[in-house]
Amino acid sequence: MPMGRRVVVTGLGLVSPLGVGVQSTWQRLLEGQSGVQNLAQSALVASSSVAPEIWASLPSQVAAMVPRGSQAHQFDPDRDFPTHERRMMSTAMKYSLMSAHEALQDAQLTHIKDPVHLTRMGVAVGMAMVDLEYISQNYAALTTGHYKKVGPYFVPRILPNLAPGHISIEYGFQGPNHAVSTACATGSHAIGDAYRFIRNNSADVMVCGGTEACVDPLAIAGFSRARALSTRFNDRPQESSRPFDRDRDGFVIGEGAGILVLEELQHALERGARIYGEVLGYGLSGDAHHITAGPSDGHGAVLAMKAAFKSVGAEQIDHLWHINAHATSTPLGDVAELRAVQTLLADSKNRPFVTANKGNLGHLLGAAGSAESILALKSMQTGIIPRTINVENLDPDIDSQIRIVVGENVDESELNSERPQRLTLKNSFGFGGTNVSLLFGQYTG
User: Fold this and answer.
1) Which of these, 187, 327, 342, 416, is most buried using a 10 Å CB contact count?
2) Which residues of 32-55 are buried (b: 16+ CB within 10 A; e: fewer)?
3) Per the structure, how many domains does the chain have?
């Protein structure tokens, strides 16, 4: 076990392409549903200020979008936010505030008034990309008119640190107020940084995770120019994100937010909080290789995974139950990650289950790591690992010793009491060669 202050997870909140709320997303995930849609048929595009012909010109015609509407599991900004808040927040900020509210309600921490306690509660939330469509609108207004055509909330709506800022202001948290932006590793880095804030006694409670809302023509065009997006399955959107499948051809851009409440163990126990799991390790590394691709052997990923085990000891690799893979459905990235897993397990007889959620969720970019961490914690809590969908033909370059969960969910719920502790590893990697691995364990006292 790690020495010093221990950190546990006591609250979860989620906005995803499978629905608003943790339970809505989890249930649809277990059913093998996909939140990927055709752009032309989506409510998001229908409400966009960008002309339909521009959307139609994009090579990738699929995206994983948060469902919009008036039902409880759908996003409705008119219902969920007063007019002044709608004007001052980007969509990503709204997602993070909604997810934070769910997580804090789950943790029973929404009504803290003691000023001393509030100074020990902080926020660490990040996003990978800002609202490009809003920037484009305001730039067009400036160049075709007067500077007063630029929105009065333009700057606050494009600053990534306003995501944690709004949460801090809403709940009065006066501890660390921290923003992270490390591309697709953002959400996991935010969790890891929050873990360290609690470990080093800078806070007792941290609200942490990632948020993203950049399904817009400029972002899609940019990723298309980088040849990162799927285009082969435009006519079959729900089959387009297919981690580990032989025919995968790129990721599917997505949006959403995943927010967790981390808490110092004694603080949680003293108030009788429910504990989802314990954060046991946080590993970081850099590829030093390429701006958009990792090395084929996954060396940087190996460094991050090994670093995540430093606080508990490398021998605990033998007890690893589950790896929630980054696996974005890119031809190079998925195989490189599994080669890294092989290297991690080279001296162990253990063969943990490996799953990927992006077939269901698409790639939530800055929110991917935190959203998938929530799902990994749900797996650890329930003993159920959701299958990786859309794997019709496993990539032949994947070693047969890797236990990828396909076909059916793994259900070991009846074995929960027989294992001393389940260990789950969550990987996230980002452009620029940034890698992070989070190690979670069941809380066993």
Assistant:
1) 187
2) bbbbbbbbeebebbeebeeeeeeb
3) 2
